[in-house]
Each structure stands twice: as C-alpha cells, then as structure tokens.
Design goal:
By secondary structure, the protein is of the alpha/beta class. Helix content is 38%, strand content 15%. It is built from seven helices and seven strands. The strands form two sheets. It has a five-stranded mixed sheet with strand order 5-4-3-6-7, with helices on one face. A two-stranded antiparallel sheet has the order 1-2. A hairpin with a 5-residue loop joins strand 6 (170-173) and strand 7.
C-alpha cells in the first residue's frame, strides 16, 4: 500500500512540474502598444521591410491595391521546391495584381543559413525567382519581425492569432493589406483552395 501511495505522490509531483514547464514553453503573447494598433489600422501597409540585396527600406504601402501573398522561405528545407510553384504563380498573376513577398528565415532547424547574396543567388539559379524577396527575418519568438507580429497577432491584424508552423507558411492579404487567409506550409500555392481565394481577391 505504501508503495502505491509513494508512486501516486511521485506521479502527481511529476505532473505538476510538467505543467509548469509546459506553461513556460507556451507561446508568449506579443505585448501590443495600443498606439501601434491604432496606427496599423489592421493593415500590413503600415509596415516596412528591407529588400534582400540592397538592404533598402521598402514601404509595404507601395503594395496598396495589390493582393499580397507573404511567405517565409528557406533554402535547405524539404519544402524548398515550393519556390517553383511560387514563381509560377507570380508569372501567371503578377500582371493581374498579385504580389508575392518572400521572407527568408532561419528559425526552423537553421534551414536558411545563407547571406543575402547567397539566398538571392540560390533563388535565381535554382528557381528563377522574380517576385520580391526581403532580408532574412525572425518569424517567431524573441526578435520577431514587426510584419510577422502583425500577421500572427489578432490584436494587430484584427482577424486571428496564429503561429508560423514551419517554412513556407502563407499569409494572404487583400488589396487594402487586410489579412484574409492563412495556409499551412504543406499547402502548395497551386492547390485549388489557394488559387480560388487569390482569384476572388484580384
């Protein structure tokens, strides 16, 4: 009987420790300044990012009137071949008003270790990428880029909270920079659900 009680006590203690650790490991909610929320107007157009090669500030307001597909990319991932379908999507719909914005990130298993020059060279040589690419950013955790704070926080985007699950997660925004849909990394952009949603917005 004593052995059973001891085992139950140890199990309860272990569960308590696990619960505390789990809470600490859970995603921290981004603390949002009310003035930032008001300034954003729930639109990505209020943000900036640095271009991949030039490192120049690019106002996303420049995309006003364009449907946006924002994708976090990586060069050494099993999903890297999605660059091909992204470029094909760009070729097909850019003239109709779609802009694809690629944000390299090293957040997942360090699968984007390259410099800006190496990333640009890889994209061009292997996939002929012509859509807009930006400097490497953090898409989750401490140091998360403001654009990804916007995309993943309902307080900022006005639609929903989300986590960037892996490389090649897609965020679709309308011509006013409002979040419309999120597609997980394994949903390719040539799938019916993505194409249909894009065509509805164009």
């Amino acid at each position: 009987m004593r052995v059973v009680l001891v085992l139950l006590l140890l199990a309860a203690l272990a569960f308590g420790i696990f619960s505390v650790v789990s809470k600490k490991m859970s995603k921290k909610k981004v603390v949002v300044d009310p003035e930032v929320v008001e300034a954003s107007g729930n639109s990505i157009h209020t943000y900036q990012a640095k271009t991949l090669l030039e490192g120049a500030d690019k106002d996303l307001a420049d995309y006003n009137g364009k449907v946006l597909l924002v994708v976090n990319t990586a060069s050494k991932c099993g999903l890297t071949p999605q660059y091909k379908s992204l470029q094909e999507l760009h070729t097909k719909y850019a003239a109709q008003g779609l802009s694809i914005l690629g944000f390299p990130s090293n957040d997942f298993m360090k699968q984007e270790p390259g410099t800006s020059e190496e990333i640009a060279d890889f994209c061009q040589k292997n996939y002929g990428v012509e859509f807009d690419m930006f400097e490497k950013v953090k898409v989750k955790g401490e140091g998360q880029h403001p654009i990804y704070q916007f995309l993943t926080s309902k307080d900022l985007n006005g639609v929903q909270d989300s986590n960037v699950e892996w490389n090649f997660q897609k965020y679709l925004l309308d011509k006013n920079g409002k979040l419309v849909a999120i597609f997980n990394p394994r949903v390719t952009v040539d799938s019916e659900e993505v194409i249909q949603k894009i065509e509805e917005l164009l």
